[in-house]
């Protein structure tokens, strides 16, 4: 069987031979129908993960269950499920392929009324947002700043924070401003030419530091600089270790996907309480362009479909 991955020196996506998936007693094998492109994939293509083995791309999927382990009694062959894998470079099967074997605990049924591409666009981005909100404390967000694009993780974090009663300000590039407003941002602050300008704009609006901040992308100094005394900030960017001064405390976001988190997100989508959509669907043979780390992904997700 073939799977899409990258390896040095050029890190261009290409096909690698992988073993046919075998169902474990506590697992399932899923025929992949769609998979979203995530920051993990773009980072891999940029050459971040250097090792002796190829890094297989894809950390989430939607598909039809093809086999069920003997110890699994709540999933049936033929069910449509979504799944999310940890955003780690090694030890993961990759989902840009035809079939994938995963623990049953990592998948969730796709609810009626939620399309394949719509479900796929939740995936790792949605779970990452859940874990970022959880790191800060969902019931104590207060005035929250989200710094970075809102087309993926940031958009889910924005919606989830609003559902918890937060007042959300988004510091984002101009091309993301309209989407931020549609997703419910209370205020959109155009990203400044420097971190200092962005920080000052936030503090001017709120009259001081905020309660919490989430760093999605860009200069982490912004999230660190907008929180006030006793505030908290976190980052969802890979490998970020803050070293700058801040009035608040840094709390790491530990992304730990599981089927329960994904099921809750998909239920919210089905109930029209969470917006999820694919900006663009492309076939798997267009994966190289889809994972381009320099591509534009404003206003939604890119989903690969078979």
From TrEMBL:
SUPFAM superfamilies in the record: GroES-like, NAD(P)-binding Rossmann-fold domains
Keywords for the protein's UniProt record, in alphabetical order: NADP, Oxidoreductase
Ranges for domain Enoyl reductase (ER): 8-304
Keyword check for NADP: yes
Pfam families: ADH_N, ADH_zinc_N
Domain of life: Bacteria
Coiled-coil region list: none
Record flagged with keyword Transmembrane helix: no
Database matches in InterPro entries: ADH-like_C, ADH-like_N, ER, GroES-like_sf, NAD(P)-bd_dom_sf
Molecular functions (GO terms): NADPH binding; oxidoreductase activity, acting on NAD(P)H
Protein name: NADPH:quinone reductase-like Zn-dependent oxidoreductase
Organism: Mycolicibacterium moriokaense
């Amino acid at each position: 069987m073939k799977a899409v991955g990258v390896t040095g020196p050029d890190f261009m996506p290409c096909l690698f031979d992988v073993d046919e998936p075998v169902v474990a007693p506590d697992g399932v094998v899923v025929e992949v129908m769609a998979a979203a492109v995530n920051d993990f994939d773009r980072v891999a293509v940029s050459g971040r993960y250097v090792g002796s083995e190829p890094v297989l791309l894809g950390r989430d999927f939607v598909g039809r269950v093809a086999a069920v382990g003997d110890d699994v009694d709540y999933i049936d062959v033929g069910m449509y499920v979504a799944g999310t894998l940890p955003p780690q470079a090694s030890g993961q099967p990759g989902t840009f392929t035809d079939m994938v074997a995963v623990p049953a605990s990592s998948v969730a049924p796709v609810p009626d009324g939620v399309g394949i591409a719509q479900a796929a666009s939740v995936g790792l981005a949605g779970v990452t947002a859940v874990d970022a909100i959880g790191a800060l404390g969902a019931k104590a967000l207060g005035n929250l700043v989200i710094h970075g694009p809102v087309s993926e993780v940031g958009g889910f974090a924005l919606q989830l924070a609003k559902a918890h009663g937060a007042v959300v300000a988004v510091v984002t590039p101009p091309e993301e401003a309209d989407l931020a407003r549609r997703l419910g941002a209370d205020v959109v602050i155009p990203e400044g030419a420097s971190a200092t300008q962005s920080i000052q704009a936030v503090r001017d609006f709120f009259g001081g530091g905020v309660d919490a901040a989430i760093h999605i992308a860009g200069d982490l100094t912004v999230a660190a600089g907008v929180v006030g005394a006793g505030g908290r900030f976190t980052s969802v960017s890979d490998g970020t270790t803050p070293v700058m001064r801040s009035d608040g405390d840094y709390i790491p976001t530990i992304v730990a996907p599981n089927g329960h988190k994904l099921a809750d997100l998909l239920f919210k989508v089905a109930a029209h309480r969470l917006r999820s959509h694919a900006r663009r669907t492309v076939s798997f043979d267009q994966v190289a362009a889809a994972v381009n780390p320099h591509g534009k992904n404003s206003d939604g997700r890119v989903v690969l479909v078979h």
